[in-house]
Specification:
This protein has 325 residues and is an alpha+beta fold. The strands form two sheets. Strands 1-2-3-4-5 form a five-stranded mixed β-sheet. Strands 6-7-8-9-10 form a five-stranded antiparallel β-sheet.
Length: 325
């Protein structure tokens, strides 16, 4: 199999993310070979999880050979015989080796991405013994200076600020308002095209917007960063129809809260970072994960939600003209 991979044409490789809940799935159609990677950084595999994934793969790729990888920071042993253990330290080392011993020249952009990724892995996931030893040596030599610096350190940037800056950096989004633990934003296209979904400016947004995205952190759940889509105060019949339309699409409007609130209703909710994920992570690692969560939300879900709300508003307009919804 190794010779086939080295000599084979791999241009037809297809990479899936979260297909059937499997973190990374790589299919090589010509070779009839599939690689599944289950990535566990801060949690363990649940009971029967790996078994379920292997069965799904056998059904989806009945004639394929398979490599099932259990990727963890320390190369923990998987609770399934078909999976092989692999650590982030091994991954970082393999990637570094590729940059040095590549069979063909690697483009500069690709080299930069690999080096940044390896650096991120070593800083936030892998315990680098060399760096730890160096840090201890420096601390012993300059203990008083380090302790003084620690006492004078500035307050860290909040995770809410990280999420807010991510949203503000996206062209086509505009901020509505912000507070100590939340900020609200909206796609500009909604301001241009929504005609029916309007809000009560005396009870919520002074702009009269009736639906807004809301980023929020929670004092009682450290590390949690949530993005939600909130239907605010407005015409009761319109609100009810919007809520019903969202409830009819549960695969898109995930996290919809039942029953619908009299003034505010959450019709979509997603955590960019959960308290369980944030636990035992450095602040820098939490920031990284919030950024990755936002990138996935922005690229995969935000456009679909934006278009779906526009479609619901158009249906409401058609209903107002005597057409059926």
């Amino acid at each position: 199999m190794m010779l086939e991979l080295i000599a084979g044409e791999l241009d037809d490789a297809i990479v899936y993310r979260e297909r059937d809940n499997i973190d990374v799935l790589i299919e090589f159609p010509r070779l009839k070979f599939v690689v599944a990677i289950e990535n566990k950084v801060t949690a363990k595999a649940t009971e029967g999880q790996l078994e379920r994934y292997s069965l799904r793969l056998k059904l989806a790729f009945p004639d394929y050979r398979m490599l099932l990888v259990f990727l963890t920071p320390d190369g923990s042993c998987p609770n399934h015989d078909l999976y092989v253990a692999y650590s982030y330290a091994e991954l970082a080392e393999a990637l570094e080796t590729l940059t040095v011993d590549a069979l063909e020249p690697i483009p500069a952009e690709t080299l930069l991405i690999i080096r940044h990724y390896v650096d991120m892995v070593r800083r936030h996931i892998v315990q680098d013994d060399r760096l730890r030893a160096l840090a201890l040596t420096l601390y012993e030599r300059h203990k008083e200076a380090f302790e003084f610096i620690f006492e004078c350190r500035p307050e860290p940037q909040s995770l809410l600020t990280v999420a807010r800056q991510s949203a503000k950096g996206v062209q086509g989004l505009t901020e509505d308002s912000s507070g100590s633990n939340l900020f609200r934003f909206v796609p500009e296209v909604w301001d241009e095209r929504l005609t029916k979904i309007k809000g009560d400016s005396t009870k919520w947004s002074k702009t009269g917007r009736g639906i807004l995205f809301e980023g929020k952190t929670y004092a009682n759940a450290p590390g949690r960063v949530n993005i939600a889509l909130i239907l605010g105060p407005g015409d009761p019949e319109t609100r009810s129809r919007v809520y019903q339309a969202a409830a009819a699409k549960p695969q898109l409007f995930t996290g919809l809260v039942r029953p619908m609130g009299a003034q505010w209703a959450t019709i979509f909710s997603r955590d960019l970072l959960t308290p369980a994920q944030a636990k035992n992570l450095t602040f820098e690692a939490q920031v990284l994960n919030v950024g990755l969560g936002w990138s996935d939300f922005q690229g995969q879900t935000l456009p679909l939600l934006t278009d779906a709300v526009l479609a619901i508003d158009e249906q409401l307009a058609a209903l107002g003209e005597g057409l059926t919804l």
